[in-house]
């Protein structure tokens, strides 16, 4: 990021934090062996997280993405060791089915749609369910041909009361999934779900500075730290709890 862009981003972030404050919480998850807490990992796939892996992957190592991966691995291992349910949403697209306004990404068979190496062990973990999705919103992506919804079934079958959400992008796929989950809960189709928690340190988004965006036809600037904060703000506004510390 250019120095001017960086200064503008920092100023904007500070202004947002004053004008639109978000209260962060610490949460202690239950230590008993029951499975009433579920972890959802949103789109931590190569196409979004691995440097140079695709059109929407980072172009260079990214500190926020690295932090997200570190925290997600820690949470996933803790859940797995307790036998608690884990759901991994994997952005997966067919070559003939575009997802405007985005360029081709996470096409099936390219490897972009696969979990990042640090989480690949989830593929064989008995506590984990992997779900490919072909749209931004993983709740919508969970709708099956017979009209059932994999997300609804996962919550009901595991009797999940709390969902802890991590992943990428905070203001895109994470936010859309969280808001749909909250709406479905309020609509009465997600019993016994009571709370949705977003773990801020386990989320990240992409960075597209202004000086780069203006060189790409149709692109708009997307300052990473600002948009990460905006995603958390809107998740909070819709009813999610935003946590920055998780103890197990």
Automatic annotation (TrEMBL):
<protein>
    <recommendedName>
        <fullName>Isochorismatase-like domain-containing protein</fullName>
    </recommendedName>
</protein>
<feature type="domain" description="Isochorismatase-like">
    <location>
        <begin position="39"/>
        <end position="213"/>
    </location>
</feature>
<dbReference type="InterPro" id="IPR000868">
    <property type="entry name" value="Isochorismatase-like_dom"/>
</dbReference>
<dbReference type="InterPro" id="IPR036380">
    <property type="entry name" value="Isochorismatase-like_sf"/>
</dbReference>
<comment type="similarity">
    <text>Belongs to the isochorismatase family.</text>
</comment>
<dbReference type="Pfam" id="PF00857">
    <property type="entry name" value="Isochorismatase"/>
</dbReference>
<dbReference type="InterPro" id="IPR044717">
    <property type="entry name" value="NIC1"/>
</dbReference>
């Amino acid at each position: 990021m250019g120095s001017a862009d960086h200064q503008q981003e920092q100023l904007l972030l500070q202004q947002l934090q004053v004008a639109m404050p978000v209260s962060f919480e610490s949460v202690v998850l239950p230590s008993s062996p029951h499975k009433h807490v579920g972890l959802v990992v949103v789109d931590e796939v190569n196409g979004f997280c691995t440097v140079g892996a695709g059109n929407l992957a980072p172009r260079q190592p990214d500190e926020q993405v690295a932090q997200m991966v570190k925290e997600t691995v820690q949470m996933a291992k803790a859940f797995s060791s307790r036998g608690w349910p884990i759901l991994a949403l994997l952005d997966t697209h067919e070559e003939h089915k575009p997802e405007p306004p985005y360029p081709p990404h996470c096409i099936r068979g390219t490897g972009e749609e696969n979990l990042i190496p640090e989480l690949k062990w989830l593929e064989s973990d008995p506590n984990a369910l992997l779900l490919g999705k072909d749209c931004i919103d993983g709740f919508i992506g969970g709708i099956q041909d017979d009209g059932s919804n994999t997300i609804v079934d996962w919550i009901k079958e595991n009797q999940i009361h709390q969902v802890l959400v991590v992943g990428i992008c905070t203001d895109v796929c994470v936010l859309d999934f969280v808001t749909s989950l909250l709406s479905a809960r309020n609509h009465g189709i997600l019993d016994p779900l009571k709370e949705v928690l977003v773990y801020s340190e386990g989320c990240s988004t992409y960075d597209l500075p202004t000086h780069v965006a203006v060189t790409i036809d149709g692109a708009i600037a997307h300052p990473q730290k600002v948009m990460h904060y905006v995603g958390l703000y809107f998740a909070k506004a819709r009813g999610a709890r935003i946590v920055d510390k998780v103890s197990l």
